[in-house]
Write a structure and sequence with these properties.
Hypothetical protein yfbM fold, 4-stranded antiparallel sheet, 15% strand, globular
Length: 144
């Protein structure tokens, strides 16, 4: 599963939806590539950052602007938790490594390369810092 995080201005979303939610990089969106970070993994990150109950985090990780999405038929767009978007940029460089280590304890990530998780967190943190102040929203492009 590809779970790319991308930044989009609210005004561009209708055109993106009409285009069938293509690969966000081909649509011109700033994107952080990932593979295998399913909604459960992103919910676990949300819990670590915000201490929200896992059930709430998972509901957020599965929130989509499309009714009854079929992951096997087409890409599905979900939102990156507003809690992650607001809290990840506040994590300092010295704490990001600990966050990656703690996140890796999630059963879905236990075999993942800790350096790759750390790098992904750095990139998404930068995406949040660079694009959210301009009014962009962050989404996750889920595609098998």
């Amino acid at each position: 599963m590809f779970t790319d995080v991308f930044s989009a201005g609210p005004g561009s979303l209708p055109g993106y939806r009409a285009a069938g939610f293509p690969d966000p990089t081909t649509f011109g969106y700033a994107t952080v590539r990932a593979k295998g970070l399913d909604p459960v993994s992103l919910a676990a990150l949300d819990v670590l950052l915000s201490d929200v109950p896992f059930k709430t985090a998972l509901e957020t990780a599965n929130a989509t602007p499309v009714d009854n999405p079929d992951l096997y038929a087409a890409p599905v767009i979900t939102t990156l938790s507003e809690r992650v978007v607001s809290m990840l940029p506040a994590v300092g460089d010295d704490s990001l490594g600990r966050l990656a280590t703690d996140w890796r304890q999630n059963p879905e990530l236990i075999n993942r390369d800790p350096t790759a998780l750390h790098t992904w967190l750095q990139q998404v943190r930068k995406l949040c810092r660079d694009t959210v102040p301009a009014g962009n929203l962050l989404f996750v492009w889920n595609c098998l």
